[in-house]
Amino acid sequence: MSEPEAAPAGIDTSVPSLARIYDFFLGGKDNFAVDRAVAADLVKIVPAAGIVAEANRGALRRAVRHLVGEVGIRQLIDVGSGLPTAENVHEVAHGIDPGVRVVYVDNDPIVLAHGRALLADNATTTVIQADARRPAEILEHPDTRKLIDFDRPVGVVMAGILHHMADEEDPAGVAAAFRDALVPGSHIFISHFCDPGDDPLVDEMRAVLRRDQGGFEYRPREVVESYFAGLELVEPGLVQLHEWRPDPEAREQEHELQRFMLAGLGRKP
After folding, report:
1. Cα dist. 228→45, 133, 167, 189, 233 in Å?
2. In angstroms, what CA-CA distances link 6 with 11, 20, 51, 106?
3. Greater confidence, 31 or 95?
């Protein structure tokens, strides 16, 4: 019988974690056998599944560079941030301006444990444990309020999180709650799995993820676009991951699997 895997206190290694599955696909080491089993099931269906995780991360990095380097945003909230990996949001932002304030949010306690260890000496960045389905819990958290001034523009990142909410959990309402809390000039970045039409892979991948992660939805383009209601879509609009402000890195990642995911950035007028 194999030895139990070592984990931080309070971490259940018998239940798969979205953050840890994503970590596995990004080449991280903070995942357990139960997470790798889910990843293996996905790879059986789509051998190149990791490309989507990498492409999503690339689009996120480019969005942060745009927000900080071009728009001038100096406050970021990363909702559903996942585990720390290469070129985190704060690392990308601080490469442009070390004074940018960043709040990471995730409901997985392992993210809190690793994030706090990583950021112990970082006065401009913190991580909180909260559920994206309850925006007020994030917006009113004392650690959020300590770093984020909601009287000034804020960039909110929701990369690959809303498709993990079932329709009855009101992802549109979640997006709207963040929009309504922000002043004009603020931005919201969203990436989301989409249903490209009659594709049998959609049902197979959905079945695996719903089995192990609960809610998981591929949604039509028009539904994803509705999450930007009240915002002005920044060019190039809602597009496939590699098409969102592409750079040489993104062109190297072009792959047919990217048809399954869209990304966009909305500005509050």
Report:
1. 31, 17, 16, 9, 7
2. 9, 14, 28, 21
3. 95
Report the pLDDT value the prediction gives residue 1, as an integer from 0 to 100: 41
Cis peptide before 236 (omega within 30 of 0): yes
Q: Please name the residues in contact with 39: beta carbons below 8 A apart, sequence gap of 6 or more.
A: 21, 24, 25, 31, 49
Average pLDDT rounded to a whole number, residues 95-100: 96
pLDDT score for 128:
94
Mind listing the pLDDT tens digit for each residue in 237-253?
Answer: 999 998 999 887 655 56
Beta strands 232-233 and 187-193 are unpaired
Q: Residue range 6-23: average pLDDT? A: 73
Q: Is residue 160 a contact partner of residue 209, using CB atoms and an 8 Å limit?
A: no
**Adjacent-strand bridge partners of 265:** 189
Among residues 213, 203, 261, the alpha carbon closest in space to that of 51 is found at 261
Q: What is the pTM of this model?
A: 0.86
Cα 256 from Cα 231, distance rounded (Å): 29
Query: What residues are paired with 76 via a beta bridge?
Result: 102, 155
